[in-house]
Amino acid sequence: MPSPSSTRWPGGALDRRGDEREAEDLIGRERAVSGTRVLLIRADAAPVADGRLRLVPASEVDGALEWAFLGRSIDGAALLLAVLGEEGEEPALPSGVAWGRLRSVGGDLPADEAEILATAVALAGWLREAPFCPACGTRTEVRHAGWSRHCPHCGREHFPRTDPAVIVLLSSATDPNRVLLGANAAWGGGRYSCFAGFAEAGESLEDAVAREIFEEAGVRVQDVEYRGSQVWPYPRSLMLGFRARVVDDAEVRADGEEIIEVRWFDREQIGAALRGEDAVQLPGTSSIARRLIDDWYGGVA
């Protein structure tokens, strides 16, 4: 397992080099190259030190369940993913290096490294959890350097699945300095966030926004505006962020099941929560929900 010779990501965007995945010997060839870097993933965590990902030489990795080619760095060196098992003793790391979960450290990593970690966690989850063909139940063969699975029995090709989900920050019908947040039952009511849900089959994103908001908060929406997206591999989501205004503030009501409370917050209250001066908890810094709130609070158009 990793030694004190582990290295940092050199910086810059990852070039995924999808064209290279066709080479059947790509993983084996790159594992033999001295400059190849490896990102270890165990569950949804990777080695982190001083706010940066820590990578290891390929020669120091034993017993990975699966391997995948993530791409190349700005210096041309390959970056590989090594998927570790979740059972048994946690692999040892060098002094000063710890396992950091995407939820916890994603917001503190440099943007390029946060993207790499999200990609690696998503791909690792699929490689670990979907070994069998969903059509016939046969164990599949990993192909395309970790990016597809082939069923030797029925011949089907399978790829990592991504499920679209909408997440929406709502503002008041009459006061742009008020936003509506909800407390999810799964959080025990202590954390307030934007409203979110998966798009259903045959449903546009705009329709998904209107349906989810009405189901969870009881309000109709207007002025729906797309704001950006984020990979969120819990388990395999692509979060599509929106802002919208409610039609009538008086219609607000929690569904009482998934959302146990809805509450209006003014700009001063959001500022106090962001600064930790209020008992109200907001989404973590790694989430697009927090970005939507931060942008609204900061007046980002």
Number of helices: 6
How many separate domains? 3
Helix percent reads 10-25%
Order of helices and strands: EHEEEEEEHHEEEEEEEHEEEHH
Per DSSP E runs of 2 or more residues, the count of β-strands stands at 17
The CATH topology assignment of the largest domain is Nucleoside Triphosphate Pyrophosphohydrolase
GO cellular component, one term: cytosol
Protein name: NAD(+) diphosphatase
Cofactor: Mg(2+); Zn(2+)
Domain Nudix hydrolase: 160-287
Write structural notes for this entry.
Belongs to the Nudix hydrolase family. NudC subfamily. InterPro entries: NAD-cap_RNA_hydrolase_NudC, NADH_PPase-like_N, NudC-like_C, NUDIX_hydrolase-like_dom_sf, NUDIX_hydrolase_CS, NUDIX_hydrolase_dom, Znr_NADH_PPase. Its cofactor is Mg(2+); Zn(2+). Keywords: Hydrolase, Magnesium, Metal-binding, NAD. With 301 residues, the chain is α+β, with helices and mostly antiparallel strands. The chain folds into 3 domains: 7-129, Nucleoside Triphosphate Pyrophosphohydrolase (Alpha-Beta Complex); 133-158, no CATH class; 163-297, Alpha-Beta Complex (Nucleoside Triphosphate Pyrophosphohydrolase). Helices cover 20% and strands 32% of the residues. The chain contains 6 helices and 17 strands. The chain has helices spanning 26-31, 102-105, 111-129, 205-217, 267-274, 288-297, and strands spanning 7-8, 37-42, 45-49, 52-57, 66-72, 78-84, 98-101, 141-143, 148-150, 157-158, 163-171, 178-184, 192-193, 195-198, 221-232, 237-246, 259-266. Strands 1, 2, 3, 4, 5, 6 and 7 form a 7-stranded mixed β-sheet that branches. Strands 11, 12, 13, 14, 15, 16 and 17 form a 7-stranded mixed β-sheet that branches. A 3-stranded antiparallel β-sheet has the order 8-9-10, with no helix packed on it. The longest helix is centred in the middle third of the chain and has 19 residues, at 111-129.
